Amino acid sequence: MSYKKSEKLFKKGSKHLVGAVNSPVRAFASVGGSPLFIKKAKGSKITDVDDNTYIDFVLSYGPMILGHRHKKVEKAIRKALKNGYSFGASTKAEITLAKIVCDAFPGMDKVRFVNSGTEAVFSALRLARAFTGRDKIIKFAGCYHGHADALLVAAGSGLATLSLPGSKGVPDAAVKNTLVSNYNDLDSVAAHFEKHNDIAAVIIEPVAGNMGVVLPENDFLKKLKKLLESKGALLIVDEVMTGFRSKFGGAQELLGVEADITCLGKVIGGGFPVGAYGAREEIMQMVSPLGEMYQAGTLSGNPIAMAAGISTLTELKRQNPYKKFDTDAQRIEEALLSSAKKYNVDITVNRFGAMINPFFTDTQVSNFAEAQTSDTAKFAKFFWEMMRQGVFLPPSQFEAWFLSSALSEEDIDATIAAIDKSMQVVAG
Ligand code: HOZ
User: Fold this and answer.
1) Going edge to edge, which strands form the sheet with 199-204?
2) Would you name the residues annotated as active-site residues?
3) Which of the four CATH numbers 1.10.3470.10, 3.20.20.70, 3.90.650.10, 3.90.1150.10 does domain 4-69+321-427 have?
4) Residues of the chain with pLDDT under 50
């Protein structure tokens, strides 16, 4: 397998792009080698500029849940393009997507569309502060909620991949109101409430996907919500990754908890830049132009992005692939565990619906500290052999693998064979 053209583009791209990429995880920094440059993708497969074709488990980090270039989505985009690209005024498509999203989340009466998950989250924090009149927020170590200053503390995803504790350029003032707790540890949340009476909200990924996949245990979310209610603080559930992924709607319903404010992204834009935050009526009444919490965006509700979102969600509802996701992910989990056992490699596998990943560690993984016990050198070996075997994974131990509804039986069989070969290589 040759990567010559990717390597050439990496060198060329490094001149005018930072690290030749526009988002750090893409740089392959923790697995070594130079990043892939992509030529095209269709269905369950993605092809790089060297004409290597892979089964895709990156899926643009989640949005391409139907696989690439689904024909109904493509038709909707082409149709929307004919009417113009951006108007700075409202369109009917925004109302249509808003209804689909609000109908899918029981606690959401109104929604505001933005351009990314990062925007959705920092707007949701502002809204929680406006609504409660309090300043502090609690986040969990290893959760990643985009790159807003206040949230670049003990964050997962790219920071975990690059082993960064935070980001330079974030002033102390920007994080002085950010408190950090441990995932699955209610006492670590309660301890902050003992010390502070000005906590506006707790923000959480209902199933973490940015420190690898980590599930909430023992009704953690339900207990968290109860604690917050008793303290008059809001629960912000960041469903940018989990939204529409393990059921149509949010993970909240599956986990038996209702957010005060929900953040969305990825799937709702069908591959175009869309984020959203939504809540019950009394909270959303705070948002400008109805209320005094200001938030705006020239390209928000962009008509092409709305068309991609509407067609993706409509097709997703029609396909209802959630049972298939579970079956496919279960087969992958079993393959990971049995190959690891066969070659005597320590791993733990976590999965939730269409999200899964192995941690190269001998411990369970229920929080960031446990995720960080993973042997990232072993992951790098595994990653590169999977690539050679024709499977494209996120180039980081701390990112979730995503499944698309376009995966065929043959794709899963080929992935299982690749896992076996790669585990053998890891074992050396
Ligand atoms: N985990 C990240 C997004 N939730 C990966 C995408 C990126 O940072 O480029």
Assistant:
1) 110-114, 275-279, 261-264, 234-238, 199-204, 136-140, 178-181
2) 144, 238, 266
3) 3.90.1150.10
4) none
